[in-house]
Amino acid sequence: MSVGEMLAATVPMARTLNLDFLETSPEKAVVAMPDQSDYHNHVGGPHAGAMFTLGESASGAIVLAAFGDQLARAVPLAVRAEIAYRKLAMGDVTATATLGRPAHEVVAELDAGQRPEFPVTVEIRRADGAVTGEMTVVWTLRPNG
User: Fold this and answer.
1) Coil, strand or helix: which one is 109?
2) Residues 6+ apart with CB under 8 A from 99
3) Which stretches of 16-130 are assigned E, i.e. beta strand?
4) Which domains does the chain have, with CATH numbers?
5) Residue 21 and residue 107: Cα distance in Å, rounded?
6) Beta pairing partners, 140
7) Per-residue pLDDT tens digits for 121-135
8) Angle formed by the axes of helices 48-67 and 103-111, to 10°?
9) Which of 8, 21, 72, 84 has the most CB atoms lying inside 10 A of its own CB?
10) For 2-11, how does the pLDDT look when each residue is reduced to its tens digit (9 = 90+)?
């Protein structure tokens, strides 16, 4: 099962918004949300909450891709998030997430008995390539036990 399939199977909001996990690797996650009138705002574009969910889902996809081999000993959890809506988003939108710290540094902190935190940055773009939103989600790997 791919990371995208796993998220769609375990996170109901990803299914609700019909998110499409286009790329999920430890280096980059790309998630698309189709234009859906049920999730529009008052100006006919994707609702801010839907865009937040898209960005958070992209961040979760890269976290699982980068740290999936750590799931036996730690649970990935979002700690906090910030989003900036830059331009009007209309139509289909795509979120691209990247890790803000090298994965090996995060795992080294986990190995040292710490609870590492690390940022994931996300750009949300509309079909013409314009950046409509920027998001940072800070994640942690909470050790089991």
Assistant:
1) helix
2) 26, 27, 62, 66, 118, 119, 120
3) 20-24, 29-33, 74-85, 93-99, 117-126
4) 3-143 (3.10.129.10)
5) 25
6) 77, 117
7) 999 999 999 999 999
8) 70
9) 21
10) 888 888 888 8
Considering Cα of 10, then 15, then 17, then 23, what sign does the dihedral take?
A: positive
Amino acid at the residue 126? R
pTM: 0.95
What mean pLDDT comes out for the span 77-83?
A: 97
Q: Is residue 47's pLDDT more than 80?
A: yes
Q: Which two tokens stand for residue 18?
A: 């019909």
Burial call 33-71: b when 16+ CB within 10 Å, e when fewer? bebeeebeeeeebbbeebbbbbbbbbbbbbbbbbbeebe
Residue 1 has pLDDT above 80, yes or no: no
- Phi then psi for residue 34, to 5 deg, are -70, 155
Query: How many residues in total does the chain contain?
Result: 145
Tokens standing for 116? 């590492």
